[in-house]
Amino acid sequence: MASVAAEQMAEPGDADVRLVITASSLGTVFEWYDFFIYGTLAASGIIGRTFFPAGSEIIQTLLAWAGFAVGFGFRPLGAVLFGYLGDRLGRKYTFLVTITLMGLATAGVGFVPSAAAIGLWAPAIILLLRILQGLALGGEYGGAAIYVAEHAPPGRAGFYTSFIQASVPGGFVLSLAVVLACKAVLPAAIWDAWGWRLPFIFSLALLAVSLWMRFKLSESPVFKAMKDAGETAENPFVESFTYPGNLIRLFVALFGIAAGLTVIWYTALFSSLAFLQGPMRMADTPAQLLVAVGALAGLGWYILFGWLSDRVGRKLPIVIGYALTLLALFPIFWVMGQAANPGLARAAQHAPVVIAGPDCAYNPFQAKQAGACGQLLDYFSKKGIPYTTAEAPVAVATIGGEPVAAGSEEVLDAALAQAGYKLDRIVPGPGSIVIILLCMTLLTALSGMTYGSVAALLTELFPARIRYSSMSIPYHVGTGYFGGFLPFISQYIVARTGDPYGGLWYCFDVVAMALVVTLIWLKEPKHRHG
Predict the structure, then answer these.
(1) Which residues contact 509 (CB under 8 A, 6 or more apart)?
(2) Measured between alpha carbons, how far is 147 from 20 in angstroms, rounded to an integer?
(3) How many CB atoms neighbour CB 131 within 10 A?
(4) 428: alpha, beta or left, given left = phi > 0 and alpha = psi -120 to 50?
(5) What is the pTM of this model?
(6) Which residue among 273, 398, 419, 489 is buried most deeply as judged by most CB within 10 Å?
(7) 438: Cβ–Cβ under 8 A, 6 or more apart, which residues?
(8) 270-294: b or e for each residue (b if 16 or more CB lie within 10 Å)?
């Protein structure tokens, strides 16, 4: 195998390693910025009302998150395509292609006319650009992670690749920072009209910086050794499924690693943002700022646990992180909800809403519900008010035990206000802000435990000749489908149940599955390069 040849090569100098880590990490930050800027603006409703107009705000939100999910859905195809190229042609030039494709696709979103201007062409073009972004991202992460790991000296891969792991939330933080900066310097009317397009177009500047840095890099020493020895795979995609013992490794990487870590990560960042802006009715800018500060403060967790994995192994932090997530996920969000909007929490406790009626059916994708009970459910879902349902001969809502018949929204608004529900957007006080930031810190710690060492783990799990393909395919299937559809599924659950915490069950169930798979089938890999 090429590992022997690679280990006999001279290790890169400190300056070379710093360049490798810096260029790879910055490129990863920029690429994930490109991918997440869509989600950042989808959470605020801009994407939905611009490109996915509908008769219902809930439908707009769900369609916007569906567009977000489409990009993730195509990540596995990008993993297959660019994994093949990375194992055949090299690590460096493959992720030069991926970052170029990502940058151009992201900037393209900023130039697409609204649906009001070009009709259905607008969502069609947006979905096409999201597909291109998904293809690009499918090749980027594996290339950057492998490239850094294959430059790392023995016993240091966890620490070195942790900077790649920290770069992923770094891209999310950068997307929020750019959005907040643009909103700060632009009048609100201009931001709503066209200023929100600037963060997408800004991707062109990030692309220029990324290309400049990455062109200065040389090829991975492990790949060069394989190429010189004539040991590169003829068909890395096929070999990923036929190499001895690789099927079980693919299974563990998909269902035990990628699925679990990604739902924790997206819950910690995107779900918390949607939770604060949606059911908790926080003003958009304070919510975005809080999540950005919390995510930025949590970047150190990824480096800490990557470093720790070089000493205690890759498996232990992940298993502990999964177990703690199952124990702490709901309590953390309950505390965060109480702090974000204590008035809403008190009103829901002292004046609970019960919606009753015959055949009480609700479909979030319908602009207008068929029955009176469904219309009540639609009203309270739009308002983000938690409710329970019951059977009754006539559709009626009770608020704190007082019945309110189905009728105009003005009547329902007045009944909610009288019961103590304040539906205006709020800004939490200083004490509440501290509590929310502590909750964000705990969520990012759980993410860091399960994500910090993963680049090193997956690199070491697979043989060098098929590493790019074997690592990328399960990672992007897991993150693409389990993680990419999380915002859509969780928001759908919230809309259907009226429970602002109901969407967390999706994360809980996936993490429970990942914990079982990891405990039973993940074997601690040796710290190796080939």
Answers:
(1) none
(2) 8
(3) 17
(4) beta
(5) 0.81
(6) 273
(7) none
(8) bbbbbbbbbbbbbebbbbbbbbbbb
Do 419 and 351 touch, CB atoms closer than 8 A?
A: yes
User: Tokens 């569906």 belong to which residue?
Assistant: 66
DSSP 280-306: T-B-HHHHHHHHHHHHHHTHHHHHHHH
Rg of the Cα atoms in the chain: 24
Side-chain-side CA neighbours of 160 within 13 Å: the count stands at 27
Pairing of strands 402-405, 387-391: unpaired
> 155: buried, middle or exposed (CB in 10 Å: 19+, 13-18, 0-12)?
exposed
Q: 2 in helix, strand or coil?
A: helix
DSSP result, 41-72: HHTTTHHHHHHS--S-HHHHHHHHHHHHHHHH
d(CA 53, CA 57): 9
Q: Which two tokens stand for residue 505?
A: 């069950």
Residue 241: left (phi > 0), alpha (psi -120 to 50), or beta? alpha
Taking CB atoms within 8 Å and a gap of at least 24, the contacts of 208-213 are 209/26, 209/30, 210/26, 210/27, 210/30, 210/31, 210/99, 210/103, 211/96, 211/99, 211/100, 213/22, 213/23, 213/26, 213/27
Sequential pLDDT tens for the chain (530 residues): 444 344 344 455 666 677 888 877 887 787 778 767 877 777 667 777 788 776 656 666 667 767 767 777 787 888 888 877 777 777 777 878 888 888 898 899 889 998 888 888 888 888 888 888 888 877 777 777 887 888 888 888 889 989 988 888 888 888 888 888 998 899 989 988 899 899 989 989 988 888 887 777 777 777 777 777 777 777 888 888 888 889 999 999 999 999 999 999 889 887 888 888 878 888 888 888 888 888 888 889 999 999 999 999 999 999 999 999 999 999 999 999 889 888 887 888 888 888 888 877 776 666 677 777 877 877 787 777 888 888 888 888 888 888 886 667 788 888 888 888 877 888 888 999 999 999 999 999 999 999 999 989 998 998 888 888 888 888 888 877 787 778 778 877 877 777 888 889 999 999 999 999 999 999 987 654 44
Q: How far apart are CA 389 and CA 408, in angstroms?
A: 20
Rounded to the nearest angstrom, the gap between the alpha carbon of residue 67 and the centroid of all alpha carbons in its chain is: 13
Encode 441-500 in three state secondary structure.
HHHHHHHHHHHCCHHHHHHHHCCHHHHHHHHHHHHHHHHHHHHCCHHHHHHHHHHHHCCC
Q: How many CA atoms lie within 13 A of 285 on its CB side?
A: 8
